[in-house]
Amino acid sequence: MKRSILLSTAAIAAAFAAPALAADDATSLDDVVVTATRLPAIVADTPGARVIDSKTIEQRGAVFAADILSDVPGLSVTRSGAFGGVAQVRMRGATPGKTLVLVDGVSVNDPAEINGAYDFSGFDLGDIARIEVLSGPQSSLWGSDAIGGVIAFTTKEIDGLRAEAEAGSYDTVRGRLAAGVANETYAVRAYVSHFDTDGISAADEADGNPEADGFTNTTVGLKGRYAVSDTVKFDGSARWSKSEADLDGFPAPTYALADTDDTQESEQWSGFGRASLTALGLKHQFSVSASDIERTSYSGGFGSTFSGDRQAYRWQADGATRGVTYAFGAEREESSAALSSGEARDLATTSVFGVGQYDIGALNLTGGLRYDDTDDFGAETTGRISAAYDLAGGFILSGAYGTGFKAPTVSQAVCDYCYAPLPWPELKPETADSVEIALGWASADGRFDGRATVYRLNVDDQITYSSGRYINVAQTRSDGVELEGRALLGAGFDLTLAYAWTDAEDRTTGARLLRVPEHAGSATLGWTGDRLSGALTVRAEGDQDDSDNGVTVAREGFVTANLNAAYELTDQVTLTARIENLADEHYQQVFGYGEPGRSGYVGIRLRY
Q1: If 0-12 CB within 10 Å is exposed, 13-18 middle and 19+ buried, where does residue 608 land?
Q2: CA torsion sign, 68 to 71 to 75 to 78?
Q3: Contact 467, 418 (CB under 8 A)
Q4: How far apart are CA 551 and CA 134, in angstroms?
Q5: Cis before residue 253, ω within 30 degrees of 0?
Q6: Which of 112, 115, 107 is nearest to 90 (CA)?
Q7: Residue-wise DSSP of 49-100
């Protein structure tokens, strides 16, 4: 079975390769723009860049971020429990804490998590307008935490009323409500979404774990902007989310994953305020952003609470001269965390950065440089340079070289739960470098486009917990190939394909990195008619190394499929239906944790 999974996935995905997962029609494919690059950049000219828009999210029937990020080549999503289990992303083999997650430009990574990673389990997509993915080191743009790359979410701006309700398997109910007004001068929007399910057992039911583990999530948000004049503008947003999840643990005497009464509560908010003005020939942005998270886990009658917060103060100036567009600025980021052990620590970094773009005929050049001075771990300078050359005939050859760094987290800095004799080693930041080359192609009529990327990512001085303390020891390398493509087939049909081969290993031991499948891919066949639309998505992953109580085990590969459909009764009312795990496949994303069997959901969407 494993051989058929890998061969079929590679065969369907190798047919095309594309620079973007999102496009509205044939004439707009070449105009997809990514903005998390500080300066807006065409996706086709930017190696490792992808954009997923709200239309694609809706077409796939994705409820949470983890439901659609798996379709991005090079991203490995691991979820420890189907509903509410910790969901983390590895980009190009890098550990989860090396992916920076932004919501409206605000970093929401968890300062209290061991690696500083973000948990996607409760990230509802109901208010998301677009997702931008930048693979490869982006520290020259965003500083620490961006060795693997950046995932940036942008919330919606609407004019009118939107409502949605859905119910289905496992006593699942979901609702969303949003209202807003938008014009050239001002916009304001408020929204709320709620998700509740009885769920399935987090520990695989096939291993004798019948207890269902439920999950509840509520998200509330507000977004607005106001233009005082053509040169002075203000905007801001705030987002609050709370989740409650039933979990399973490792009870005595076997300490194997099994049904328990473990639970976890998580509450997070993030927001920003920004003033934009034009002065001295430059467009200036002054912003203040903040995020806060608190997680409490209950196991065996005992509670463990982790809390963290982060603030950033940023000034950025944009300009253009003699064909060069550029941006530069400075920022101060401060974070703190309190751990369940009673340890606490404040960390901070002061930074200056600059990025520029220049077009020389068919050649586009982009370069960036950043200097980060941490209060506790010294200073680092990182950079990135990329180039894209129009070869004519629809072909674009592009490449990039970048460096990155990641400062130790609070848990690592205070050596949380360390028992080794003092003195503990003095930690230094992890560093990385990466090179990638991509070849893209788009047909003249815009019906077909694609991209193939090859890369190498090296990480040095990776921080590892070993023998009762944290040390800089590991060196890792990821070599990979990413293929992606989109075809407009006619008669309302479109096909999107993605495939990734990832060879990720610990250079210190020679072992494969855990939870990074060597082969992974997806194929989505969509159809849009006058009233009826739908999409069939097939995903496949090969075997991957995983951990079972510290012992390396093999998690078997799998193929699964989801079907989503929508029927417009009127311009304002749409009926929806989706079926997940269409073939009722038994599989695991993470070893020992179960995933739902075939399940169905029906709903309604209202737009006024």
Answers
A1: exposed
A2: positive
A3: no
A4: 33
A5: yes
A6: 115
A7: EEEEEHHHHHHHT--BTHHHHTTSTTEEEEEESTTTSEEEEEETT--GGGEE
Tell me the C-alpha distance between 208 and 210, whole Å: 6
Instruction: Say how far apart CA 10 and CA 481 lie, in whole Å.
Output: 11
* Distance, first Cα to last Cα, the chain: 49
Which one-letter amino acid corresponds to residue 518?
E
Within its chain, how far is the Cα of 183 from the centroid? 30
CB contact at 8 A, 163 and 126: no
The pTM assigned to this predicted structure is 0.93
Helices of type H across 280-437? 410-413
Name the least confident of 462-466, 481-485, 563-567, 597-601: 462-466
Residue type, 454: V
Task: With beta carbons less than 8 A apart as the criterion, state whether 285 and 314 touch.
Answer: yes
- Tens digits of residue pLDDT in 115-174: 999 999 989 999 999 999 999 999 999 999 999 999 999 999 999 999 999 999 999 999
Distances (CA, A) of 205 to 259, 264, 592: 9, 20, 9
> Which residue do the tokens 């605000």 mark?
106
**C-alpha dihedral, 415 to 417 to 420 to 426, nearest 10°:** 0
- Is residue 140 helix, strand or coil? helix
Q: Which residues, including other chains, have CB under 8 Å from residue 11's CB and lie 6 or more apart?
A: none
Give me 488's structure tokens.
């407009």
Give dist(CA 102, CA 150) in Å, integer: 8
Judge contact between 241 and 124, C-beta under 8 A: yes
Instruction: Answer whether 63's CB lies under 8 Å from 172's CB.
Output: no
Q: Which of 148, 153, 19 is nearest to 77 (CA)?
A: 148
For residue 482, give the amino acid letter: E
d(CA 484, CA 9) in angstroms, rounded, equals 12
Residue 301 has pLDDT above 90, yes or no: no
Per the CB < 8 A criterion, the answer to whether 49 and 80 are in contact is: no
Residue 277: enclosing H or E segment and its boundaries? strand 263-279
Does the pLDDT value for residue 11 go beyond 60? no
CA-to-CA dists, residue 114 to 56, 100, 252, 308, 385, angstroms = 33, 15, 24, 12, 31
CB-neighbour burial class of residue 547 (10 A; exposed 0-12, middle 13-18, buried 19+): middle
Tokens of 119: 């948990």
| DSSP-based three-state secondary structure for 409 | coil
Residue-level pLDDT at 31: 56
CA nearest neighbour of 87 among 292, 264, 334? 264
